[in-house]
Design a protein that fits this description.
Blueprint (H helix, E strand, L loop, with lengths): L2 H18 L2 E2 L9 E2 L6 E5 L2 E5 L4 E5 L6 E8 L6 E11 L2 E10 L10 E4 L3 E5 L5 H11 L9 E8 L2 E6 L2 E7 L7 E6 L6 E11 L2
Antiparallel strand pairs: 1-15, 2-5, 3-4, 4-15, 5-14, 6-11, 6-15, 7-8, 7-14, 8-9, 9-10, 11-12, 12-13
Amino acid sequence: MKAPAILAALALTTLAASAADFVPLFDGKTLNGWKNPYDWGKTEVVNGEIHLTAGKKFFLVTEKTYGDFIFEGEVKLPEGKANSGFMFRAHVEKNKVFGYQAEVDGDPVRKWSGGLYDEGRRTWFASPIKGNKESETAFRARAGEAFKRNDWNTYRIECRGKNLKIFVNGVLTTDVEDDKDASGVIGIQHHGEKGATYKFRNLRIQPLK
């Protein structure tokens, strides 16, 4: 076998092994392993997807907590005004979830999908820094047109110690270091638009040692 063929075979083997290391967070049929810490919000499974509907903002979160990991998941926003996110290393209280969030931005002008938001605390503190024109411009240059407003979008979140990375459809949009949180839950968000349905699927995680 020639060198290129050997390298290709090794790459396929590595990818297969990597995929095998992922653990499903959603079985496509039930919400086992998830909980709604709010007194409101409708959650249901439809055709292998998690659908969230509500009249005000809420998060559905995992029962387990995670520290260092690689997370992958898909999201589709409803039409019209919409905004969502994937919470990670987040914290849960009664009717409250706060912490790191990988932004899912439905605003076609702002385009901050893949940004790092600190829900309930520092807000836009790093990627981008809200109000800092240089930071905002640099973020848009990184993210480009990676996010597809009216389609499914694949997010990947990598947490290794204080290093946090967010990818949108394979594009690295955020790569920062922050030590605010070392572990916490994974969560998905409904932003609160009455009558709107937020959809999620193929949620999985690879814990890192």
